[in-house]
Protein backbone atom coordinates (compact mmCIF):
# COMPACT_ATOMS: atom_id res chain seq x y z
CA UNK A 1 0.00 0.00 0.00
CA UNK A 2 1.37 3.41 -0.90
CA UNK A 3 1.92 6.07 1.74
CA UNK A 4 -1.39 7.96 2.26
CA UNK A 5 -1.54 11.56 1.13
CA UNK A 6 -1.63 13.80 4.17
CA UNK A 7 -2.99 16.93 2.56
CA UNK A 8 -5.13 17.64 -0.47
CA UNK A 9 -5.83 21.20 -1.51
CA UNK A 10 -9.52 21.91 -2.07
CA UNK A 11 -10.03 24.23 -5.03
CA UNK A 12 -12.84 26.10 -3.30
CA UNK A 13 -13.25 28.80 -0.67
CA UNK A 14 -16.77 27.69 0.28
CA UNK A 15 -16.80 26.84 4.01
CA UNK A 16 -20.02 24.80 3.71
CA UNK A 17 -18.54 22.73 0.89
CA UNK A 18 -15.31 22.17 2.86
CA UNK A 19 -17.21 20.93 5.92
CA UNK A 20 -19.28 18.49 3.85
CA UNK A 21 -16.32 17.14 1.91
CA UNK A 22 -14.02 16.88 4.95
CA UNK A 23 -16.62 14.73 6.74
CA UNK A 24 -17.01 12.48 3.71
CA UNK A 25 -13.28 12.08 3.11
CA UNK A 26 -12.49 11.35 6.78
CA UNK A 27 -12.14 7.56 6.10
CA UNK A 28 -9.07 8.26 3.93
CA UNK A 29 -7.31 10.02 6.82
CA UNK A 30 -6.45 13.04 4.68
CA UNK A 31 -6.86 16.72 5.44
CA UNK A 32 -8.55 18.99 2.94
CA UNK A 33 -7.05 22.48 2.93
CA UNK A 34 -8.95 25.33 1.31
CA UNK A 35 -6.89 27.05 -1.38
CA UNK A 36 -7.50 30.45 0.25
CA UNK A 37 -5.60 29.22 3.35
CA UNK A 38 -2.58 28.77 1.06
CA UNK A 39 -2.98 32.18 -0.55
CA UNK A 40 -4.19 30.71 -3.85
CA UNK A 41 -6.68 32.84 -5.80
CA UNK A 42 -9.71 31.31 -7.46
CA UNK A 43 -9.20 30.05 -10.99
CA UNK A 44 -11.26 31.34 -13.94
CA UNK A 45 -14.17 29.05 -14.87
CA UNK A 46 -14.75 29.81 -18.55
CA UNK A 47 -16.32 26.53 -19.61
CA UNK A 48 -19.93 25.45 -20.04
CA UNK A 49 -19.64 22.01 -18.44
CA UNK A 50 -19.05 21.03 -14.82
CA UNK A 51 -16.24 18.62 -15.64
CA UNK A 52 -14.17 21.15 -17.63
CA UNK A 53 -14.47 23.76 -14.90
CA UNK A 54 -13.64 21.29 -12.11
CA UNK A 55 -10.58 20.11 -14.03
CA UNK A 56 -9.39 23.68 -14.56
CA UNK A 57 -9.83 24.50 -10.85
CA UNK A 58 -8.01 21.34 -9.73
CA UNK A 59 -5.07 21.96 -12.09
CA UNK A 60 -4.75 25.55 -10.93
CA UNK A 61 -4.82 24.65 -7.20
CA UNK A 62 -2.34 21.80 -7.66
CA UNK A 63 0.06 23.89 -9.72
CA UNK A 64 0.01 26.76 -7.21
CA UNK A 65 0.31 24.56 -4.10
CA UNK A 66 2.43 21.63 -5.26
CA UNK A 67 -0.15 19.37 -3.57
CA UNK A 68 -2.67 16.89 -4.92
CA UNK A 69 -5.92 18.74 -5.56
CA UNK A 70 -9.64 18.14 -5.36
CA UNK A 71 -12.16 20.37 -7.12
CA UNK A 72 -15.93 20.29 -7.11
CA UNK A 73 -18.05 22.01 -9.71
CA UNK A 74 -21.69 21.75 -8.82
CA UNK A 75 -24.91 23.38 -9.82
CA UNK A 76 -28.62 23.26 -10.28
CA UNK A 77 -30.03 21.94 -13.54
CA UNK A 78 -33.68 22.92 -13.99
CA UNK A 79 -35.61 20.86 -16.52
CA UNK A 80 -37.92 23.73 -17.55
CA UNK A 81 -34.83 25.86 -18.32
CA UNK A 82 -33.18 23.22 -20.52
CA UNK A 83 -30.70 22.29 -17.77
CA UNK A 84 -29.76 25.84 -16.78
CA UNK A 85 -28.45 27.56 -14.68
CA UNK A 86 -25.89 24.73 -14.62
CA UNK A 87 -22.34 26.10 -14.38
CA UNK A 88 -23.76 29.61 -13.76
CA UNK A 89 -25.62 28.52 -10.62
CA UNK A 90 -23.51 30.50 -8.13
CA UNK A 91 -24.14 33.74 -10.05
CA UNK A 92 -27.68 32.94 -11.16
CA UNK A 93 -29.36 35.91 -9.49
CA UNK A 94 -26.93 38.47 -10.95
CA UNK A 95 -28.46 38.12 -14.42
CA UNK A 96 -31.70 39.45 -12.92
CA UNK A 97 -30.08 42.44 -11.24
CA UNK A 98 -29.63 41.00 -7.74
CA UNK A 99 -26.33 41.02 -5.81
CA UNK A 100 -24.73 37.57 -5.56
CA UNK A 101 -25.97 35.60 -2.55
CA UNK A 102 -27.62 32.28 -1.75
CA UNK A 103 -30.83 34.04 -0.67
CA UNK A 104 -31.01 36.07 -3.89
CA UNK A 105 -30.35 32.97 -5.99
CA UNK A 106 -33.32 31.27 -4.35
CA UNK A 107 -35.46 34.40 -4.78
CA UNK A 108 -34.60 34.71 -8.48
CA UNK A 109 -35.22 31.01 -9.12
CA UNK A 110 -38.68 31.10 -7.53
CA UNK A 111 -39.56 34.24 -9.50
CA UNK A 112 -38.47 32.64 -12.79
CA UNK A 113 -40.43 29.44 -12.04
CA UNK A 114 -43.61 31.26 -11.05
CA UNK A 115 -46.57 29.64 -12.80
CA UNK A 116 -44.37 26.87 -14.21
CA UNK A 117 -45.95 23.41 -13.84
CA UNK A 118 -42.72 21.50 -14.44
CA UNK A 119 -40.71 21.92 -11.22
CA UNK A 120 -38.29 19.03 -11.85
CA UNK A 121 -34.63 19.80 -11.21
CA UNK A 122 -31.39 18.07 -10.28
CA UNK A 123 -28.44 19.12 -8.18
CA UNK A 124 -25.28 17.89 -9.87
CA UNK A 125 -21.78 17.56 -8.39
CA UNK A 126 -18.69 16.76 -10.44
CA UNK A 127 -15.53 16.03 -8.46
CA UNK A 128 -12.09 15.96 -10.08
CA UNK A 129 -8.92 14.87 -8.27
CA UNK A 130 -5.33 15.19 -9.50
CA UNK A 131 -2.08 13.89 -8.03
CA UNK A 132 -0.28 16.81 -9.67
CA UNK A 133 -1.11 19.64 -12.09
CA UNK A 134 0.11 17.49 -14.99
CA UNK A 135 -1.61 14.26 -13.93
CA UNK A 136 -2.70 12.66 -17.25
CA UNK A 137 -5.33 10.53 -15.51
CA UNK A 138 -7.62 12.70 -13.40
CA UNK A 139 -10.14 10.93 -11.21
CA UNK A 140 -13.68 12.04 -12.10
CA UNK A 141 -16.82 11.29 -10.09
CA UNK A 142 -20.34 12.58 -10.70
CA UNK A 143 -23.34 12.66 -8.36
CA UNK A 144 -26.90 13.67 -9.18
CA UNK A 145 -29.83 14.28 -6.83
CA UNK A 146 -33.22 14.57 -8.53
CA UNK A 147 -36.01 16.56 -6.94
CA UNK A 148 -38.63 19.26 -7.28
CA UNK A 149 -38.35 23.00 -6.71
CA UNK A 150 -40.75 24.11 -3.99
CA UNK A 151 -42.97 27.19 -4.21
CA UNK A 152 -41.17 28.77 -1.24
CA UNK A 153 -38.11 28.05 0.95
CA UNK A 154 -38.60 25.37 3.61
CA UNK A 155 -36.07 24.47 6.33
CA UNK A 156 -33.15 26.15 8.06
CA UNK A 157 -30.19 23.86 7.28
CA UNK A 158 -27.76 23.51 4.40
CA UNK A 159 -26.78 26.24 1.98
CA UNK A 160 -27.37 27.30 -1.63
CA UNK A 161 -30.62 25.98 -3.05
CA UNK A 162 -31.15 23.44 -0.23
CA UNK A 163 -34.30 25.22 1.11
CA UNK A 164 -36.12 24.84 -2.24
CA UNK A 165 -34.79 21.43 -3.31
CA UNK A 166 -37.55 18.98 -2.32
CA UNK A 167 -36.59 15.30 -2.35
CA UNK A 168 -39.77 13.23 -2.88
CA UNK A 169 -38.35 10.03 -1.35
CA UNK A 170 -37.68 11.94 1.90
CA UNK A 171 -40.76 14.13 1.79
CA UNK A 172 -38.53 17.06 2.75
CA UNK A 173 -36.18 19.66 1.30
CA UNK A 174 -32.43 19.28 1.71
CA UNK A 175 -32.59 22.15 4.24
CA UNK A 176 -34.93 20.10 6.47
CA UNK A 177 -32.72 17.01 6.60
CA UNK A 178 -30.06 16.28 9.25
CA UNK A 179 -26.56 16.55 7.77
CA UNK A 180 -25.91 12.81 7.89
CA UNK A 181 -29.14 12.09 5.98
CA UNK A 182 -28.49 14.85 3.45
CA UNK A 183 -24.92 13.66 2.89
CA UNK A 184 -26.12 10.09 2.33
CA UNK A 185 -28.37 11.05 -0.60
CA UNK A 186 -27.10 14.39 -1.91
CA UNK A 187 -25.33 14.99 -5.20
CA UNK A 188 -22.12 15.78 -3.31
CA UNK A 189 -22.55 12.71 -1.11
CA UNK A 190 -22.87 10.52 -4.20
CA UNK A 191 -19.87 12.04 -5.97
CA UNK A 192 -17.77 11.91 -2.78
CA UNK A 193 -18.44 8.21 -2.21
CA UNK A 194 -17.59 7.48 -5.85
CA UNK A 195 -14.40 9.56 -5.55
CA UNK A 196 -13.44 7.78 -2.32
CA UNK A 197 -13.72 4.45 -4.12
CA UNK A 198 -11.62 5.74 -7.03
CA UNK A 199 -8.91 7.09 -4.73
CA UNK A 200 -8.73 3.82 -2.81
CA UNK A 201 -8.43 1.86 -6.05
CA UNK A 202 -6.05 4.14 -7.96
CA UNK A 203 -4.08 6.11 -5.36
CA UNK A 204 -4.04 4.09 -2.17
CA UNK A 205 -4.43 0.50 -3.49
CA UNK A 206 -6.15 -0.63 -0.37
Automatic annotation (TrEMBL):
Keywords of the record, alphabetical order, are: Hydrolase, Magnesium, Metal-binding, Nucleotide metabolism, Nucleotide-binding
Cofactor binding comment, as recorded:
Binds 1 Mg(2+) ion per subunit.
Provide any one GO MF term from the record.
Answer: nucleotide binding
UniProt: Mg(2+) binding residues: 73
Q: Which cofactor does it need?
A: Mg(2+)
Keyword presence, Aminoacyl-tRNA synthetase? no
Protein's GO biological process: nucleotide metabolic process; purine nucleoside triphosphate catabolic process
Active-site residues, as the UniProt record annotates them: 73
As for what it does, the entry says: Pyrophosphatase that catalyzes the hydrolysis of nucleoside triphosphates to their monophosphate derivatives, with a high preference for the non-canonical purine nucleotides XTP (xanthosine triphosphate), dITP (deoxyinosine triphosphate) and ITP. Seems to function as a house-cleaning enzyme that removes non-canonical purine nucleotides from the nucleotide pool, thus preventing their incorporation into DNA/RNA and avoiding chromosomal lesions.
- Family the UniProt entry places it in: Belongs to the HAM1 NTPase family.
Query: What is the protein name for this chain?
Result: dITP/XTP pyrophosphatase
